[in-house]
């Protein structure tokens, strides 16, 4: 579909942004309905989108009487419209208020599911933060292996929690260095705050599971020691995401499963 913007060159406008994005602009010289009508006819327009408080029911009716075009009208003040689609994208929009203001077969698009947002908001919502804690000592040296699995996913930030008891701390520090999407916390006394910031956790089936469970954070638990078997068994029985040992493919599948939940909210 080919999109054209028709607008006046009024002072303080941001028409350059339309041009920068690669769209065509037609500079309207007047407020005359016929000027727009001629553009619709000469360009064989199928859909006219109106975003202007002064373009009203009379204006829309005149266009419709003289040219067969679908009209989508923006409205957030409950005015009368002669349009095929009405868009009120405010979260406060009330469909019922348009009764008698629009034609019977007009499609009403009202409320939060139609809210127009810039891409940056979708990107920010997509971004998820993971809390990663493989125990203070990380005897199995899994932190880096798990971080490598997480790298397969876009829009993921990771909070890694460990202590000085971790013999692989220097290697981990080197790995994390320069990676803006990974934050390493050593000997932190703000674990609860870090958990609260997170969307989901990757932990061992140990005391940490009690904590993430209490905080209502979805998690994947990876068994790393025999004394975690009781918890592992319990979580498996509850059909929660748990691995008997680290496996990059299985972990990848579990992360995918958790992320799907967020995107279907």
Question: How would you describe the overall organization of this protein?
Answer:
- With 265 residues, this protein is of the alpha/beta class.
- It has 10 helices and 12 strands.
- The strands form 3 sheets. A 6-stranded parallel sheet has the order 9-8-7-10-11-12, with helices on both faces. Strands 3-4-5-6 form a 4-stranded parallel sheet, with no helix packed on it. It has a two-stranded parallel sheet with strand order 1-2.
- Helix 2 packs parallel to helix 3 (57-66) and helix 5 packs across helix 10.
- The mean pLDDT is 94.
Q: What is the 3D shape?
A: elongated
Terminal-residue CA separation: 31 Å
Q: Can you give the mean pLDDT?
A: 94
- Based on CA atoms alone, the radius of gyration comes out at 28 Å
Number of helices: 10
What structural category characterises the helix and strand content?
alpha/beta
H/E element string?
EHEHEHEEEHEHEHEHEHEHEH
Query: How helix-rich are the residues, as a percent range?
Result: 25-40%
Show unreliable segments: none
Largest sheet: spatial strand order: 9-8-7-10-11-12
Q: Quick one: biggest sheet? A: 6 strands, parallel
Q: How many distinct beta strands?
A: 12
């Amino acid at each position: 579909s080919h999109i054209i913007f028709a607008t006046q060159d009024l002072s303080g406008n941001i028409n350059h942004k339309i041009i920068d994005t690669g769209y065509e602009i037609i500079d309207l010289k007047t407020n005359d309905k016929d000027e727009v009508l001629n553009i619709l006819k000469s360009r064989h327009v199928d859909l006219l989108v109106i975003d202007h408080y002064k373009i009203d029911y009379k204006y829309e009716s005149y266009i419709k009487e003289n040219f067969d075009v679908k009209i989508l009208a923006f409205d957030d003040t409950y005015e009368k419209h002669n349009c095929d689609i009405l868009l009120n994208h405010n979260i406060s929009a009330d469909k019922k208020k348009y009764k008698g203001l629009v034609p019977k077969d007009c499609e009403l698009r009202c409320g939060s599911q139609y809210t127009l947002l810039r891409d940056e908001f979708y990107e920010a919502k997509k971004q998820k933060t993971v809390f990663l804690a493989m125990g203070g000592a990380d005897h199995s040296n899994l932190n880096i292996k798990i971080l490598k699995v997480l790298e397969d996913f876009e829009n993921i930030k990771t909070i890694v929690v460990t202590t000085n008891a971790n013999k692989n701390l220097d290697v981990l520090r080197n790995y994390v260095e320069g990676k803006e999407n990974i934050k390493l916390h050593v000997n932190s006394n703000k674990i609860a705050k870090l958990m609260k910031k997170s969307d989901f956790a990757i932990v061992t089936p140990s005391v940490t599971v009690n904590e993430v469970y209490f905080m209502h954070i979805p998690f994947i638990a990876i068994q790393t020691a025999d004394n975690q078997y009781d918890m592992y068994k319990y979580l498996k029985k509850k059909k929660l995401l748990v691995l008997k040992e680290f496996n990059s493919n299985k972990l990848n599948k579990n992360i995918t499963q958790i992320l799907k939940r967020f995107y279907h909210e």
